[in-house]
Amino acid sequence: MYFLIDCNNFFVSCERVFRPDLNGKPVVVLSNNDGCVVARSNEAKSLGIPMGIPLFKIKEEIALHGIHVFSSNYPLYADLSSRIMSILREEVGVVNIYSIDEAFFQMELSPDKALRFSNYLKEKIFKWVGVPVSVGVATSMTLAKVASYFAKKVAGYKGVCMIDNEEKRVKALNLIPISEIWGVGRRLSEKMKFSGIKTAYDFTQRTEEWARRVGSISLVRTQNELRGIPSVRIDSYADVQSLCTSRSFASVITDYAMLKTFVSNFASKVAKRLRDQNLVASVLTVFVQTNFHNDLSPKYSNSTHIALVTPTNNSPELIKVALQALAKIYIKGYEYKKAGVIASSIISQQNRQYALFEENSEQRRKMEKLSVIMDQLNKQNGTDIIQTAVQLFPATNSSQSIAFKDQLKHDFRSNAYTTNWNELIRVK
C-alpha cells in the first residue's frame, strides 16, 4: 500500500501551533514581501478569499471579517516540517519527501492494519508537533493522492481515507474532477473537458493511445495509476528538475544596482540549495517583470537562459552568470516588481563532467572549496554571516552596507519560535 501524509493548510497550521486562540478563526499567510495570499484557513476559504490574491485587494474583507494576517515565516515552517518528517522516518524508515508539507512512503500492510497505522501517525504528529495532517492510502501513488483529497474534504473520514478495493476506486474517481488529479495541469484539464472528460473516472475509460496523443507517456502513467496499477517508482518524484528562487519586491525597483543585488542573492540561494542536495546545474535562467496589477505603469516581462560550460553549484560562478543574464534583459525606465533565478538541467554532483579544455580548472576548484567553507561558517555562526560583496546593498549616506535580509518586508511576521533564541515563546 502507498501512503501520503499531507499537512492541512500547512502554513496556517504552523502559525496556529503557537497561537491556539486562532483555531476556528479566518487566517491567511502572505508571500514574500507581503504580496499575495499563499495559504488560507478553511474559515478564510469560506469567506471567498481566493488563493494568490494581492493583499491590497482584500483589505476591506480583512477589516470586515477580522481576518488574521501573517507574513511568511519560512524558518518556522521548515523546522516544523523537519520534525514531521523525522517522526515519519522513525516510524517507517524510508520516506519520499514530495514537498514541505507532503511525503509518501510504502508499506505492506493489510487494509485493517493500514487504517490503524494511519490513524496512529495522524494522532502522533498532531500530539508531538501540533500540525493536523490527512492521510491517503491506496494501491498506487496517484490514488493515494486522490484518497488524501477526500480525507481533507469529507469530515466523515476524520482525516484518513483508504482506497483498497475496486468499488471504492470507481466511486472516488467518479466524484473527483479531472482538474484535481495529480499530474493534470489546468491547460490539459481544459483540453480534456473539451473532449467530454469531466471526472477522473471518465479519463480511465479512454485508451492509452488517446492519453499518449493528448499528453505524453507521463499521462499514460497517470491513467494506469488511477486504474490501480503502480506505474512510477516511489522515489521518482525525488528527482529535482529545477530549483527556483524568486521574490516580489516590497516596492518597485528602478535602480539597476539594487536589482543586481537582489538577483545576486537569488543566485546565491539557488547555489546553496544545489550544494545541500549534492547537485549541479547546467543552465541558469533569470527573469524580471513589472507590476501587472498596476494599470498605470508600463508592462514588461522578460527572461534569458545561459548554458554553463561545466555544471556547477559554485556561488560566485552562478552569481556572475546570473548578472550576465540580467544585463541582457534589463531595460532602463521600467518599474520592476519581481525577479528570479532558476537552475535547470540538474544532475548529481558525482556525475558531473568537467570541460575538456577548461582554462582555469584550479581556480574552479578553489572557488568550490570557498563555497563549502562559507556554508560551514554560516551554519556555525548564523545565516548569511559570510556573503560575497555583491550581495550587500550600499547604504544611503553611509560607507557601510546593509544585509540583504534587512530589505525584506514582513510587517505581519510571527516569531521564529523554534529556531531563534531571541524569539522563544513567552509564558506569563
Quickly give the structural class.
Answer: alpha+beta
Strand content: 15-25%
Number of strands: 14
End-to-end separation in angstroms reads 47 Å
**Unreliable runs, pLDDT <50, ≥5 residues?**
396-400
Report the order of strands and helices. Answer: EHEEHHEHEEHEHEHHHHHEHEEHEHEE
Q: Compute the gyration radius: what is it? A: 24 Å
Amount of helix? 25-40%
The overall average pLDDT, rounded, is: 86
Number of helical stretches of at least 4 residues: 14
Taken from the alpha-carbon principal axes, the silhouette is globular
Strand line-up of the largest beta sheet:
5-6-1-7-8
Strand count, sense and barrel status of the largest sheet are:
5 strands, mixed
Written description of the protein model:
- α10 crosses α11 (217-226) and α12 (256-276) packs antiparallel against α13 (315-329).
- This protein has helices at 10-17, 42-46, 59-65, 74-92, 111-128, 141-153, 166-175, 186-194, 200-204, 208-214, 217-226, 256-276, 315-329, 361-381; strands at residues 2-7, 27-30, 37-40, 68-70, 96-99, 102-106, 133-138, 160-163, 242-253, 279-290, 301-312, 336-348, 393-394, 401-402.
- Strands 5-6-1-7-8 form a 5-stranded mixed beta sheet.
- With 428 residues, the chain is an alpha+beta fold.
- The longest helix is centred in the middle third of the chain and has 21 residues, at 256-276.
- Helix content is 39%, strand content 21%.
